[in-house]
């Protein structure tokens, strides 16, 4: 969809310029409060399963050896990191991924390769889309870390309940997606309520 790509390029470019002061402020706070690199990068599966590097502000302590799922209140999440994650500010560097074409503003969240390789049959249609910063599954599970904190085995719950439901939602998005619908998802994401 050419219109969608033009939108992604234009808005991500303007966002990177306009939000530069915010980027710098967050980077300084991370340097002061969370020793180590400012940017966290990780390999994710993108369009057609191509591996790319996603960029985020680092919210966790170094060498934590934690699970692949994040749970609210974990000791590995720095206090500043918890705030950044709550308001999704840790994901601002993904604007660079959008500008490069690795990602879109709206699309299925990019999985780690180990998860994308589990997709079978029609589920693999999801990989025809650029992964996104937000999507209907993101909106449904905006409280994912709190939800995982409420169960006995977060990894098992993620693998057996959350991830399969996200796949279902992503398939629904694949079949019903439109540019107008994407704008609606962006607006819902921006104006979703988050308690202070």
Structure explained in plain terms:
It is a single chain. Helix 5 (113-116) links the parallel strand 3 and strand 4. 49% of the residues lie in helices and 10% in strands. The protein has 9 helices and 4 strands, in the order H-H-E-E-H-H-E-H-E-H-H-H-H. By secondary structure, it is mainly α. Helix 1 (2-18) crosses helix 4 (94-100). The mean pLDDT is 92. The chain has helices spanning 2-18, 20-33, 79-86, 94-100, 113-116, 136-140, 144-149, 154-176, 179-190, and strands at residues 39-45, 51-57, 104-106, 132-134. The termini are far apart. The longest helix has 23 residues, at 154-176. The protein has one domain. The protein has a two-stranded antiparallel sheet. A two-stranded parallel ribbon has the order 3-4.
β-strand number: 4
On the 0 to 100 scale, the average pLDDT is: 92
Helix content: 40-55%
Return Rg in Å: 16 Å
Name the helix and strand elements from N-terminus to C-terminus, one letter apiece.
Answer: HHEEHHEHEHHHH
Strand content: 5-15%
* Inertia-based shape: globular
Give the terminus-to-terminus CA distance: 37 Å
């Amino acid at each position: 969809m050419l219109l969608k790509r033009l939108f992604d390029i234009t808005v991500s470019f303007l966002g990177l310029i306009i939000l530069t002061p915010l980027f710098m402020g967050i980077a300084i706070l991370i340097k002061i409060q969370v020793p180590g690199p400012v940017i966290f990068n990780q390999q994710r599966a993108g369009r057609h399963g191509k591996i790319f590097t996603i960029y985020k502000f680092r919210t966790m302590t170094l060498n934590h050896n934690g699970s692949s799922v994040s749970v609210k209140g974990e000791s590995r999440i720095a206090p500043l990191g918890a705030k950044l994650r709550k308001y999704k500010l840790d994901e601002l560097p993904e604007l660079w991924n959008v500008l490069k074409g690795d990602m879109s503003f709206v699309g299925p969240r990019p999985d780690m390769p180990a998860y994308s390789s589990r997709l079978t049959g029609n589920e693999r249609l999801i990989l025809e889309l650029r992964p996104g910063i937000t999507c209907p599954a993101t909106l449904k599970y905006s409280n994912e870390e709190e939800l995982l904190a409420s169960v006995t085995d977060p990894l098992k719950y993620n693998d057996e309940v959350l991830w399969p439901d996200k796949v279902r939602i992503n398939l629904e998005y694949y079949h019903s997606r439109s540019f107008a619908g994407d704008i609606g998802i962006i607006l819902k994401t921006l104006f979703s309520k988050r308690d202070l």
